[in-house]
Design goal:
The structure holds three protein chains of three kinds.
Chain A (H helix, E strand, L loop, with lengths): L1 H11 L8 H8 L3 H18 L1 H4 L31 H37 L1 H16 L2 H12 L3 H27 L3 H8 L4 H38 L10 H8 L8 H28 L8
Helix pairs in contact in A: 1-8, 2-12, 3-5, 3-12, 5-6, 5-8, 5-10, 6-8, 7-8, 8-10, 10-11, 10-12, 11-12
Chain B lengths: L1 H27 L5 H9 L7 H10 L6 H14 L12 H36 L4 H15 L2 H15 L15 H34 L3 H8 L4 H38 L5 H10 L3 H29 L7
Helix pairs in contact in B: 1-12, 5-6, 5-8, 5-10, 5-12, 6-8, 7-8, 7-10, 8-10, 9-10, 10-11, 10-12, 11-12
Chain C lengths: L2 E14 L2 E14 L3 E5 L6 H8 L7 E10 L2 E2 L8 H6 L4 E4 L3 H4 L6 H12 L4 H14 L5 H4 L9 H13 L5 E5 L7 H18 L2 E6 L2 H5 L4 E6 L2 E7 H6 L4 H8 L40 H5 L6 E4 L2 E3 L11
Parallel strand pairs in C: 3-8, 3-9, 6-7, 7-8
Antiparallel strand pairs in C: 1-2, 1-4, 4-5, 9-10, 10-12, 11-12
Helix pairs in contact in C: 4-5, 5-7, 7-8
The chains are: A mainly alpha, B mainly alpha, C alpha/beta.
Chain lengths: 298, 319, 329
């Protein structure tokens, strides 16, 4: 793991150049897959916000007479066992995915950044305690830890968010820790310290801004993994419980009808994949545009 | 060298102890009394009196202070006594012992496949940048990273199980009992377990390779008149494996994390399935030991990875 | 002495986002058996690229687009860049050592592994003989306790020591030509002198011709028999070392010499830098590339294209309209 910090050290030596907005746009929009990702994400956000207006059906209460309908003009993707429209639940599932994705990632990023910054800046015993705790959290396979925490906290969207946030925050803490260590080696930080500037001010005004580009990239890429992990949890039956619309549990519910109604599993799975793919592509694009030296590190 | 290994070992043990604390106290925060489940099971065979409840509580050591319970469990690990499952009424060591070989079998096969194919895909993508090999490899990697494994499982089951009838869609038979059936049974689970790790390895390998082949020492190697094969295998491969090896520890974690889902999809009686069942049953005795087992494996593998750097990269002097 | 290598009208281009860079734009030179020549110019003038082109070690986006490299009556540029014929030349007939000793050796292989592989490949030696030969070579280039150090990794050596290893490696298969690309630039001054002296002795012993590529005229002054001065992808002056130092004719060469401090001149004489920067190699005008920096220029220079190399004395050529002999320097 020391390897990682030295790699981070190399790219963070030069502070990011802010006035390169044009270069950023050129590199960012150059790749077709990034554009594709942006289109998918735009559709996702539209679906999440305007869900009630996009579909005439109720996502929670179905028409039992229409149970397990095959795809048709009335139900484009058919219906599930309770007669609920699959497309409608898919659109409402976008809400779940987006809310869980964003709230989790932002919570985890803030907590991880603070922990990593504090550990890196104060060093010594504080560093030891925080980083060993992070190592311990990272020792668990992420899904296992989330499963454990979700089981402890019980179901419900807010508990899924807490579980996933705890499971993902060590990643931010570790990157932030490495960045803090390397940035504060810079001469101007040493000078600030020598002049006796306030520690918290140095951290906020000097160290934090320098570590933003890699963090932004990490956040974007993590959004995808968090949505994937949430889907995994709801597939296992933990987290968002029926009748709430979550893509992972839709895949699970569809398993029983795989032979007769494969679309019940296939459609939500494809939705998960497209969204995760989109976040990854945009994340990669951001990384190359913000700082190509991050390639291979994040 | 030795002092470095000892230091890393101590660090690993500390991390492991912190992990036991996390698991133990997380499980103790579970809503409800673990015994209620036990009681629920007994309910049909007659209700329990208060005295019986107390004796059960005593039997499972639940009447002691939490800290003491932790030390009891922790001490038990060294005596090989992991306690008795509340849900299965069986020795936890035995429960895990029966299931672990299955998870290990699937996990190891998947891990090897993921790394061999991942490294090969990334290697050829890197040295043939911009060709169709590169496009195929990069596309596969992008799919592998983003595909939900339970969905991949559904696709595989649909195509190879339900439509083509080539492979059984669930279950696990010991390879010593029926090797051919076992092979057919594990194909789909192994693909599901391996795909993510393979994708990450391929990606990392490709970028490492691209970085290495533009180094000065590769130009030196060309200037000596060496053929491309020698240059790639002798001069580039070892250098480009260094960052890939780092990922392997994480990759192993992914395999075991994936086992939780994949064993559920394919109804395989492994540790992953056991953990999911036990989490739902609030069987803390099983969950804490099972999690610890997986954590210990992941931590030891990371340790091996750290030490193996020395073999790959002589610049690391374990200072 | 017989002519060994003759490079004719070599052109090497790099396709970049902003245009085609003609890094080497019609370079011709030759080297005789057991001769030492110097190729001198500022960084970016194409001197290294020209040498990498001879070895066909140019990788994308670079491309050799014209010229011939005649070596032992064969044109090397007709061979596939990484084909068997070219590989049989590299290391065995023409060897090369590079500027950065810190990065030119593979960090994860021992010196033995890197030094013996050429002997096994080109000289068909077995592992034991190759190892003995390698130790012998290390000994010759002045690595103390070579027998022990041979199993060390590059990071155990200092920069100067690594460059010695590179020289041993370059000479290991008795090549006809050794190309040394800025061999001493990355080293400190005392090491530079030792290394150059050692290199000269070694090539004499091995009867190898040596091409020293450098930006430092001082480096070649003592060792090279002839010197080529390069500017903006072309050779602007060539001749015997004595002639170049004694009677420089091209304004650029004259400028270069004025930048070198000399002990034999009276005190207080100023070093005169050449004003301006080397030209951008994209979309160069047909006129003399040195024109914007030249203090000798005449009307003809900006009206006519850059002249060909023309003889000013038997073995001395310049690419210039100005007869610098007539003007006092």
């Amino acid at each position: 793991m020391t390897k990682n910090t030295t790699m981070i050290r190399e790219f963070s030596e030069a502070p990011p150049r802010v006035n390169e907005w044009r270069r950023f746009r050129r590199v960012f929009f150059q790749r077709k897959l990034v554009i594709f990702g942006l289109v998918i994400l735009t559709l996702l956000v539209i679906a999440a916000i305007f869900a009630p207006w996009l579909t005439p059906y109720d996502p929670y209460i179905g028409d039992l007479g229409e149970s397990l309908a095959q795809p048709s003009w009335t139900h484009l993707l058919g219906t599930d066992i309770q007669g609920r429209d699959t497309l409608c639940r898919l659109i409402y599932g976008a809400r779940t995915a987006l809310i869980v994705g964003f709230v989790t990632t932002i919570t985890a990023a803030i907590a991880g950044i603070v922990l990593g910054l504090v550990a890196g800046y104060f060093g010594a015993i504080i560093n030891m305690i925080i980083m060993r705790a992070m190592d311990a959290l990272m020792g668990f396979p992420m899904l296992l830890l989330a499963l454990l925490l979700a089981a402890v906290l019980g179901s419900g969207i807010q508990n899924v968010i807490i579980a996933l946030a705890v499971a993902t925050l060590p990643g931010y803490a570790r990157v932030m820790h490495g960045l803090t260590l390397s940035v504060q080696e810079n001469d101007y930080i040493l000078a600030e310290r020598a002049m006796g500037s306030d520690k918290w001010r140095i951290m906020l005004n000097h160290i934090l801004p320098n570590t933003l580009p890699p963090i932004i990239v990490l956040v974007t890429l993590q959004l995808g993994s968090v949505i994937l992990a949430e889907a995994g949890l709801s597939f296992l039956g933990i987290g968002i419980r029926p009748p709430g619309a979550a893509w992972g549990s839709m895949v699970y519910d569809g398993y029983r009808f795989l032979l007769s109604n494969p679309v019940l599993s296939f459609a939500p799975g494809l939705a998960i994949m497209l969204v995760v793919f989109a976040f990854n592509m945009v994340g990669d694009g951001l990384r190359d545009a913000l700082d190509p030296r991050l390639r291979g590190v994040i | 060298m030795t002092s470095y290994i000892i230091r890393r070992l101590i660090q690993g043990i500390i991390v492991l102890i912190i992990m036991t604390l996390i698991v133990f106290f997380a499980m103790r925060l579970l809503p409800g009394d673990p015994l209620t489940i036990f009681i629920g099971q007994q309910a049909s065979s007659g209700s329990l009196s208060g005295a019986q409840l107390e004796s059960l509580r005593h039997e499972y050591g639940l009447d002691k202070p939490v800290m003491m319970q932790y030390f009891d469990w922790f001490g038990g690990i060294f005596r090989g006594d992991l306690g008795t499952s509340i849900y299965y009424h069986e020795d936890v060591g035995k429960l895990l012992g029966e299931r672990f070989p299955i998870t290990l079998h699937l996990g190891l096969v998947a891990f090897i496949i993921a790394n061999v194919f991942g490294i090969l895909l990334g290697l050829f993508a890197g040295i043939r940048r911009g060709t169709w090999i590169d496009s195929v490899s990069t596309t596969l990697a992008n799919i592998g990273i983003t595909i939900p494994v339970f969905w991949l499982g559904a696709l595989l089951i649909y195509v190879f199980g339900l439509k083509l009838h080539w492979l059984p869609i669930y279950g696990y038979t010991s390879p010593f009992e029926d090797f051919w059936l076992n092979t057919k049974q594990i194909i789909m689970p192994v693909i599901c377990l391996a795909i993510t790790g393979m994708a990450y390895t391929a990606r990392q390998m490709r970028s490492a390779m691209l970085e290495v082949i533009r180094q000065d020492y590769i130009r030196t190697a060309w200037s000596k008149g060496l053929p491309e094969r020698t240059i790639i295998i002798k001069h580039a491969l070892k250098n480009s494996l260094i960052p890939v090896i780092t990922l392997m520890g994480i990759g192993l974690g992914m395999v075991f994390g994936g086992a939780v889902i994949v064993e559920t999809v394919f109804a395989i009686p492994g540790v992953g399935r056991l953990l999911v069942t036990s989490v739902f049953a609030q069987d803390y005795v099983v969950v804490q030991s099972g999690t610890l087992l997986i954590a210990a494996i992941v931590i030891s593998c990371n340790l091996i990875v750290d030490i193996s750097y020395g073999w790959l990269d002589p610049r690391i002097r374990y200072g | 002495m017989a002519e060994l290598l003759h490079v004719k009208d070599l052109v090497t281009q790099f396709k970049t986002e902003s245009g085609v860079v003609k890094a080497v734009n019609g370079v011709s030179y030759y080297i005789d058996e057991q001769e030492i020549i110097g190729l001198v110019g500022e960084s970016g003038c194409g001197k290294s690229v020209s040498q990498l082109s001879v070895m066909q070690l140019i990788s994308a986006p670079g491309e050799i687009t014209g010229g011939e490299v005649i070596f032992e009556r064969e044109n090397l540029l007709e061979y596939q860049p990484h084909g068997p014929e070219m590989r049989a030349i590299r290391g065995a007939k023409i060897a090369m050592i590079f500027q950065e000793p810190m990065t030119s050796l593979n960090p994860v292989l021992t010196i033995a592994q890197q030094l013996t592989e050429m002997l096994v490949l080109h000289k068909k030696m077995n592992a034991d003989d190759a190892r003995k030969k390698a130790i012998e070579l290390l000994d010759m280039v002045g690595i103390p306790a070579a027998e022990k150090r041979i199993d060390d990794y590059p990071h155990n050596f200092s920069g100067g020591m690594r460059q010695r290893v590179m020289i041993a490696m370059g000479l290991s298969c008795n090549p006809k030509i050794l190309i040394a690309d800025e061999p001493t630039t990355a080293l400190d001054v005392t090491t530079q002198a030792q290394l150059l002296e050692m290199m000269k002795n070694m090539v004499q012993q091995f009867r190898t011709s040596l091409v020293i590529v450098t930006h430092n005229l001082g480096v070649v002054a003592r060792y090279a028999q002839r010197i080529y001065i390069m500017y903006a992808g072309r050779i602007v002056e060539s001749g015997p070392t004595k002639e170049i130092f004694g009677r420089p004719r091209h304004p650029y060469t004259i400028g270069l010499l004025k930048c070198i401090p000399r002990l034999d001149e009276e005190e207080g004489k100023k070093l005169i830098p050449i004003n301006g920067l080397p030209p951008n190699l994209i979309n160069m005008p047909p006129t003399c590339a040195f024109l914007p920096r030249c203090s000798w220029k005449i009307d003809k220079c900006s009206k006519k294209p850059w002249p060909e190399l023309t003889s000013v004395s038997s073995n001395h050529f310049i690419r210039c309209y100005v007869n610098t002999k007539e003007k006092k320097s």
